[in-house]
Amino acid sequence: YTKWRIQTKQWYQRRVRGEESDTNRLLKEQLNRMRKDVRVIIIVGYAHDIIFVLKAANKLGMTNGHFAFLTQEFIQAEFNKKDIELMQSIQGVLDFEPLLNKLDRGYISFSERVREVVKRQGYPQTGKDVANLVAAQMYDAVFLYAKAVEEAVSQGMSIDDGGGLVKLMSEMEWTGKSGEIRIDDVGDRLGNVQIMNIQSGEFRQVGTWWMSKKNQLQLALDQYNETQIIWPGNPGSPPVACGRQYELCQTYSD
């Protein structure tokens, strides 16, 4: 059974992600169009999807110092540092992840409870000491909904009134399992974000975007400065800003 699963996975990867696959061909076409018009590329997806895109970009010469790649919660990926192509492809990526102190006693306790439930229910285990960030976010989402329902009942409102529940959630503030949380007037979460830079296969925090405090929206590079951020291709300086309509750049360089 295990051998069959491995063979099936290898066939799937060749069919869907191989050099001659339609997926790879379409991705290359898209990247070739993008390299003529943009300098900053944002990739949102699972870790294996992000790696797939970054490797394709590397093969097209886009890790030459002229482009910046931004990802979301890529930090949860695990890299094979012996894979030279992979290391070249991910070098200099900027990753954005919710700011969370995983050494906090409360989060450690939460992680222990999550592991107990996972083991009891027979779910696959990661073997990591702390719970996945998604588990903390889901916990906070349910907590937020429960608080809104509790408030609705206390005010005699219908819990089927979605708009009313969102209104009750607005301006709520607390420290949840996934960090500091503030809900704005349209029901979106405003949390703090840590900016991580991949350097030699390691994630290094180079900045923080503070959003959880009222009247305080600040992007800070913490104790680091701009010259310590590694960009793809190690150019020594950030990629040229070309403007929203690319009006400041006339061409691109190989």
TL;DR of this structure?
The chain is an alpha+beta fold. It has seven helices and nine strands; from the N terminus they run ααβαβαβαααββββββ. The strands form two sheets. Strands 1-2-3-7-8-9 form a six-stranded mixed beta sheet, covered by helices on one side. Strands 4-5-6 form a three-stranded antiparallel beta sheet, covered by helices on one side.
Supply the key terms:
single chain, 254 residues, alpha+beta, 6-stranded mixed β-sheet, 3-stranded antiparallel β-sheet, 39% helix, 18% strand
Q: List segments where confidence is low: pLDDT < 50 over at least 5 consecutive residues.
A: none
Q: Give a quick account of the main beta sheet: strands, pairing sense, barrel closure.
A: 6 strands, mixed
The whole-number mean of residue pLDDT values reads: 80
* H and E string: HHEHEHEHHHEEEEEE
Shape: globular
- Strand runs, count: 9
Per-chain topology:
Layout: H1 2-17, H2 22-37, E1 40-43, H3 47-59, E2 68-72, H4 84-90, E3 94-98, H5 105-121, H6 133-154, H7 162-169, E4 173-176, E5 179-183, E6 189-191, E7 193-199, E8 202-210, E9 218-220
Parallel strand pairs: 1-2, 2-3
Antiparallel strand pairs: 3-7, 4-5, 5-6, 7-8, 8-9
Helix pairs in contact: 3-4, 6-7
